[in-house]
Design goal:
three-stranded antiparallel beta sheet
Amino acid sequence: MRADVTIQPPTVGWPGQVGSRSELARQTRLALGLPGDRIVVMSGHQAQLWHAGIAAKAFAATQVAHAVGGVSAWVTVDQDATDPGAIAYPTTDLQTAIWRLDPGTGAAVRKSELAAVGTRPAERAFAEVPANMHVQVQLGAQNVLKALQCHADASTLATQFSAAAFEPLHGLAPIDTQCCATALAGTAIFDAALSLMQHAPRLCAERYNSAIAGVPAARLRPLVVTDTRIELPLWRVRSNMPRTPVFAHDLASVPREQLAPRALLMTALLRAAACDVFIHGVGGGVYDQATDAWWHAWLADASHVSAQSLRALPLAPTAVVTATRRVQFAGAHVPTPQEIDAAVWRAHRTNHDVAVLGPAATTRKQELLQALAQAPRRSATRRAMFRELHRLIAEAREHGADAISKAKVDAQIALQSRAVAETAHARTWSCAFLPRATLEELCYSVGRELQL
């Protein structure tokens, strides 16, 4: 089957040689465990089990790094408040259910109530694989348990799940070095950005809000900016406590180790000092358009000394890499969500289609519709045309009763299978649920699309 892999832009023009490094960049790379004398191809994701689209980023990072004689790096977004232990799985009857790995976990918790995953301890007790899990993914689920148990001594829940997420990709995505996003708080570039925020917090927040307003598809929340409160693009992260926004008037009182960058600031810092190209998925590729606009506008308008040092660090280019691979459920013949939508549309169309009466009826319907659009509202002429149009449709329904009936039945059957279709054709199942051969084929396909 032809690979469903997206790589934008093509790798032509990606860094092929090491450029000069500023002292700020060298110090930042050293703090993150990255080499200062080699090209760094970076990607990353939240600490959770990944679908094939995320695996494609890891495949691309390793293959591009190898091709240019550089190193691949992966950043775990551990400041995010995710619930990695809630794993979606397909049931025996092809419904979607949630496997909660922590046996003591009750109902789902809202994201706003969760502590950042990088501040939570690794899991050491695990619920068994659910009895109603589809047989085709049970082995993968058992492998997930083994991987998490192998990494139960990890320093945080984030590093445990990031390590487990790489297990299905063993040998296919040999990432050279990994780091956590919260480690940025200990870097030289974070110091420079923080100094600039403290000097002109309103400028930072206003340029941020203007930038995200220009990229509505990113769906980013604007920072709070009032006469008394200015929100900064930072999180405060503490153990066993929900992460909270950071405001300018509180910044001096927040311990440095409790500060973490939000998404735009995170990728801006990484692209400015830690890597030579950053590989996003589709969502990151959208929101980083706002990153570029905000970062350049903020630094251009700031006069503080730290702005001068940051302006000397151009943002590394980005690329978008993603892919789709689905679990193939043996013996399941389920229409796709698109086919279901098409069946519903056919039922609607057939119920209003006058083509069964011949070409003249179709022409007349179009004439009536055009005339109705121009006729004065509430006029006798308009009412007469409405009556003629409905008469024409009623006649067509009488002539095409059998076709209309069949289309309605087909639509009802299709709608009844919608929940099953969403499960059977989902693209977000964990890589652990995919056969090894599928992941090997995906790795090969990414390389082919990269044309390295």
